[in-house]
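Following the same procedure, sequence and fold were stored together, as reproduced here.

>
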Amino acid sequence: MTESASDHWSDYWSRGLLTSLPQDFAANYDGEVRAFWHQQFAATPAGGRVLDLCTGNGAVALLAADYSGQHQGGLEVTAVDAAHIRPDLIARQFPTQAALLERIHFVSHCRIEDFESPEPFDLVTSQYGIEYCDHAAAARSVVALLRPGGRLVMVCHSAGSDIIAFMNKERDEYGLLEELGLFSTTRAYLDREVSHGELAAGLRRVQSRVHSEFRVTGSPLFRSVLETLGGVLALPPHRLDASREHLEAYYRQTRHGFDRLEDMLRVNRLLAEDPGWTRVFTEAGLEQVSTGELRYRGTHHAGEFHVFARPGAGD
C-alpha cells in the first residue's frame, strides 16, 4: 500500500468504522462470516498466537478476542495495518467492544513486509486485506511469521462477488458526482476561488440531477449527498463561511471515499486478470489446505477463502 493510499485509509479508519465494506455488507462480521472465522479459531491451539494482517479497525481481531473469551481459548491477538489505527475511536463508536479492544495488540503504520516478531504465530488471518499488498513480499513475510504447522487463512474479494458488483455500481455513482462538479465546485469554494453564489449555483445543478437519479435508484450514496446539499444550500453566506471547517471535512470524506473505492476496484481488476495469484504462497513454501466460496446471509457471494499451512510440526 502506497503512502497516499495509506492516507485515505487512515482517514476512513479514524472515523471508528469496523469494516471497509459497502453499507449493505458492513455490519460487524456476522452470520456465515462469523461462523467461518470461529471455525478457524477453534482449530487454533489454546493459548495460541493470532496475527491479523491488514486489520483495518480490527474486525477479525475482535472476533478472535471475543471467541477466545467465550471459549477460554487464551488466544494472544495482534493486529497490524499500514494505516493509522485508533482503538479509542472504535471503542467510542462501539462501546460494547471496549473490553475486547484492550486484549488486542494493535500495530499501526506497519506494512506486512516490515512487521517482525520474536515469537512465531499459530494463525495468521486477513479479510479483504492481503490482496492490496505486494503479494510475493507478503507471502515471504507470512512464512517467516508462522510456526511450523501454523496456518494462514485469507478471505479475499473475487471478481464475481456481490460486494464487487455493489462497488462497481457505487463507483459509477461517484463518477457522476465528479462529472457534475461536486468535488471541483466545493474545492474551488474552499480555496476561495469562487463566491458563495457560484457555489450555490453549482450545488443546485448537482442537487437537481442527483435527485432525479435517486428517485430511480434509491442509492444510499445519493441520499447522503442530497441530505448534505440541502443543509449547505439552506445556509446564508456568513453561516456557510463560518462552517468552512465542516465543509472541508465533508469534502475530504467524500473525496477519500471515492479514492478508497477506486483503490479496491483497481486491485480487484488485477486479481481478475490473474485468478491464480495465491500461488505466491505455495511458491514461498506454504501448502494449500483448502479453498472455496464464502456466502453472506445465505445469498450474497462474499468472496473466496484460502487456507494454507506451513509444513512441519508432525505434518
Notes: The CA atoms of residues 214 and 222 lie 6 Å apart. Residues 3-159+275-309 form a domain with the Rossmann fold fold (CATH 3.40.50.150).
